[in-house]
Amino acid sequence: MTIQSSNIKSLGPLHFFDGELGTFHGLLLETTDLLMYQMEQTLHALDYGDVDLALKVVSRDRKVDAQKMRIEAEIHGILASNLSSTTDLRIVMTLSKMADVLEKIGNEIVNLARQLQSIFDRRCGHYDAELMAEIIRIGGMIKIMLDKMTLVLETRNSNQAYKLVQFSWNCDTRLQQVLRCHLSSTLQNTVIIEHALDILHILKTLERCTGFCRHIAEHQILMLDCIDMRCRPSITEACAINNIHII
Length: 247
Hints:
- By secondary structure, the protein is an all-alpha fold.
- 81% of the residues lie in helices and 0% in strands.
């Protein structure tokens, strides 16, 4: 079911979660914290060439899956109960969408960890320290976005969600620059084509993570401020409505 923007605007902003909704909210916080740790460990594995650590990230995905199952059980329990208002249903549906996107981020982080083994096996003496440092910086930017999500969940304040949206666009710009440079250098040295393709897959994985983080921020803004970013307001206009300044 598609929610019309006019209906969204008629509802008040949400800032408090009680009872069962509070448990649901807590599970989302735990999942986001776990994903931050997964990303941190993956970047550490890339930085130090630690295949064993990357495999631990892959193995730990079971915990992310278990969190998703707990969230789904919580959703079913809430929907089976008598929700007190339309607002409660709105919260549940929005948080459920956020949980789905968090799972996708978790899957992408695991894909990234799996790709590291190919990177280490195929580089054959070729190591572009500057490119690897840039990949780690971009991964760090994604970790910052996850942290901003946590702040929004903890404070029920959308300020960081707007900053996350802007930050994600900045990250996208940086990714596109790295992609162009990488493709250009690959064309000049086709001997390392397999290694270059592995790097390309990593960059595209980071790009998807960035997009998923932005989607969650959009859900948070919709839930807390009743601004539907699907209507494509500029981030500047959205911030102006709520008197938010992005630095």
